[in-house]
Amino acid sequence: MEQLLQVDNLVTQFRTAKGKLKAVRGISFSVKAEETLCIVGESGCGKSITSLSIMGLLPSNGEISQGSIRLGNEELVGKSDERLREFRGNKMSMIFQEPMTALNPVFTIGFQLREPLRIHKNMTKKEATAKSIDILTKVGISSPEKMLNQYPHELSGGMRQRVMIGMALACEPSLLIADEPTTALDVTIQAQILDLIDTLKSEMGMGVVFVTHDMGVVAEVADRVMVMYAGEVVEVGTVDELFSNPGHPYTKGLLAAVPNVDDVDQDLSIIPGSMPSLDDQITGCRFHSRCPYAMDVCKEKTPPSFKVSGTQEVKCWLQEVDNNGKSTTSSGSG
Ligand code: SF4
Ligand code: MG
């Protein structure tokens, strides 16, 4: 399948009172068309910052200081805000956990759906209206004509989520980024939304980056999984590899932390200890203070990413012991 998104050695940092702090520390990954890559990890691991870096939607004190993000043949790093705006909603779009982030309370749903189609696709009002009805039908709205005249506050949370997905998909982007899009929804609607994204993905041939901390959701939607910890990618592999043969102690911890479906705010706190903060100076493996397998080398030297298979890589010294003699690739960062 066609390579869609290629991220290389991405470093994203924030200007703070304590100086420049790295939230994303030299990560690389790719997504193909019709593929769903799940990014998992605890709050603050850099998964949302990675999404926002791709979208060009970092907060004003954030910046990409290194690396490359290619969407198709286009390099996104260094593009002007104006050019990035053209990409957003057209070639790439994002859905958020909280739909009101994306919906404007003072405009009707119809206006908000039509506008991007008129801007990005040069549609007439009539064409854009027809397309909006089509999109709302696709996302499972039963009376789309009526909804065009409604305002966001008139809709239930589940309906707003569907509308936001509709808005994100209206221009048929090649890349969809979904950041915890179902966390705030009840289980039934969550399942419907996940199905919906999956169906639309194959219908439209999109690549999907799905950010979540819920391994249950990962099992359901992922083709491949990328596990992040403290700004780094610690493991990547197919969903089967990750679930049947997790290589990194952190991944094992995530899989052991059975999520409680009643507690939407729970964030994998079952792994003892907490993630280092951005300004912690750590030598060696960034997980070593929490790792039950930590060895002397772990405190001194940053582990490279070891290839476990053609598709699985694990950033952990245990793999060197396991695979002694196998070729390794370093993923940089220190
Ligand atoms: Fe644990 Fe060492 Fe592997 Fe880090 S490198 S995850 S500390 S065993
Ligand atoms: Mg987040």
Automatic annotation (TrEMBL):
SMART domains in alphabetical order: AAA (SM00382)
Subcellular location: Cell membrane
Record bears the keyword Nucleotide-binding: yes
One record GO biological process: peptide transport
Superkingdom field: Bacteria
Record Pfam families: ABC_tran, oligo_HPY
Location of the ABC transporter domain: 5-255
Similarity-based family: Belongs to the ABC transporter superfamily.
Listed name of the protein: Peptide ABC transporter ATP-binding protein
Organism (species): Virgibacillus profundi
